[in-house]
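Quick start: what a row looks like.
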Amino acid sequence: MNSLPTKMHALQIETYSEQLSFKYVEKEIPSLGENEVLIRILKAPVNPSDLAFVTGNYGFKKDLPVIPGMEGCGEVIAAGSHKDAQSLLGCNVACIAGEGDGTWAEYMVASPYQCIPFSDNVTLEKGAMLMVNPMTALALINIAKQGGHKTIIQNAASSALSNMIRFLAKQEGLNVINIVRSRQQAKAMTKAGMPYVLNSSAKDYQENLHLLCSELNASLLLDAVAGQATADILDAMPEASTAVVYGGLSGEGPKVSIEHVIFKNHKIEGFWLAHYLKDTKVEELKNMGEQAQTLMAQDFEIAIQSQPKLEYASHSIATYAGNMSRGKVLISPHQD
């Protein structure tokens, strides 16, 4: 049996800056705690949330220097003595980063509760993206069901995450009002058969949004944009509606007025997947993991623009930041 590695290569940031800057470094692999596992990272995507983190715009910062990377997948090659850690030994797992270093490295130490084993029929490419989007979609649909909502509004509706939310909503019999920001996006989605699509840049956007909200009793907003978009949508929603803000693509906090929260009795909530997973029971997490695998097995179009080796990934990350619509970047630390 091969001995376990003691050192690893990684991409590291030493400052939070709008100018993307990474160092390719060699580091000691931390020793394992009783209830921790060592994951040999095979694929790690670059998500918009990763870019927000490395530029210091994510809502929290880790102590520097730090290895970024919110999610990924790999093989558990070592485990502490705790039964939960031991149960993952030898498994391929999807994983999400905790409070320390992330997935843009050859190895990552994690709690077993940051991992979901996935079956052999899930590719590494899909396994690497099993946590953030699928688990977020499942969690947000759970929030919709628990709140008794019948119609969801989602902005940034052309994203991969929005596709998953639509798929799950249809299974649950929920209507979805999809808001995009261009005529081309709206036209493509309407042509694909989506019944409720609005272009936020159109002159009649606000009028049509009011009509749809009234017709469908749209009482839940899943808000990935924030800023003025939050206020504009809340203006159109019926009284006592809820906005769940889970992103900030506008670069601003949600704009909410006294009228929204007092006179219209709207409720504003935040959603962060890390908190949701931490507060979810282990058995429910396992069930969500199985659902996530089923979700990723669907024929969602997930474009991948490149799969660079770790040492060459800085250029690919910068390219992704300049044109995310071309598809994901999947860092491959152990690529031959």
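That is the whole record. The longest helix spans residues 132-146. The chain has twelve helices and 15 strands.
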